């Protein structure tokens, strides 16, 4: 295995910390560059060269001719394929187990993340509150949480009773359920216990604090900070429309 020499371009959002959680869980050293989303740094030509979508996160692997990878899930799989010889997060030699991990990673990528992302828009970013849209988003998020809750019955983690990439990628979004308009997950006891279990993992917790102290914790504990953020993001979105 080549010695990793990686720069992570990120910000402390739910998608951003997915990658720092994976890096920390794999024990890979990395440098961090904070991308100033509020200053639109993500749309600067130098950044669009490494992330044509103009969003965080991105990694650049200097040990592989400055190879860049965008999209959090693609980054996570790249890191496991190149820097997880012990198969800590992604099984290599057991095709069924590997497929199960990837199935749950995709469930997060194409289900949970877009559902919560859309809900964040209606609950936080849009100044006008549309109850129908907000309720409909919460309904879909809860449907997805129900699927996970059922799968976690009698299990500690999503696949093989071991913490894998499936858990690492899903946890940052799900722990932020309140931000996405789902105040409580008490009705999903297995999912709630799973969140609390991952809350105790030191590497994951370290990853949540990259590149800034854990934003979800800050918003949960200080409603005035959440309000401040909402005002900022609403003006940012308004500007984007013009
Ligand atoms: N599917 C992408 C989503 C990335 C994403 O939405 N990033 C947001 C922050 S969570 C962003 O950079 N937003 C800035 C913008 O849209 O201008 C991924 O998983 O990497």
UniProtKB/TrEMBL annotation:
<protein>
    <submittedName>
        <fullName>Glutathione S-transferase</fullName>
    </submittedName>
</protein>
<feature type="domain" description="GST N-terminal">
    <location>
        <begin position="3"/>
        <end position="87"/>
    </location>
</feature>
<dbReference type="InterPro" id="IPR036249">
    <property type="entry name" value="Thioredoxin-like_sf"/>
</dbReference>
<dbReference type="InterPro" id="IPR004045">
    <property type="entry name" value="Glutathione_S-Trfase_N"/>
</dbReference>
<dbReference type="Pfam" id="PF02798">
    <property type="entry name" value="GST_N"/>
</dbReference>
<dbReference type="InterPro" id="IPR004046">
    <property type="entry name" value="GST_C"/>
</dbReference>
<dbReference type="InterPro" id="IPR036282">
    <property type="entry name" value="Glutathione-S-Trfase_C_sf"/>
</dbReference>
<dbReference type="InterPro" id="IPR010987">
    <property type="entry name" value="Glutathione-S-Trfase_C-like"/>
</dbReference>
<comment type="similarity">
    <text>Belongs to the GST superfamily.</text>
</comment>
<dbReference type="GO" id="GO:0016740">
    <property type="term" value="F:transferase activity"/>
</dbReference>
<keyword id="KW-0808">Transferase</keyword>
<dbReference type="InterPro" id="IPR040079">
    <property type="entry name" value="Glutathione_S-Trfase"/>
</dbReference>
<dbReference type="Pfam" id="PF00043">
    <property type="entry name" value="GST_C"/>
</dbReference>
<feature type="domain" description="GST C-terminal">
    <location>
        <begin position="94"/>
        <end position="219"/>
    </location>
</feature>
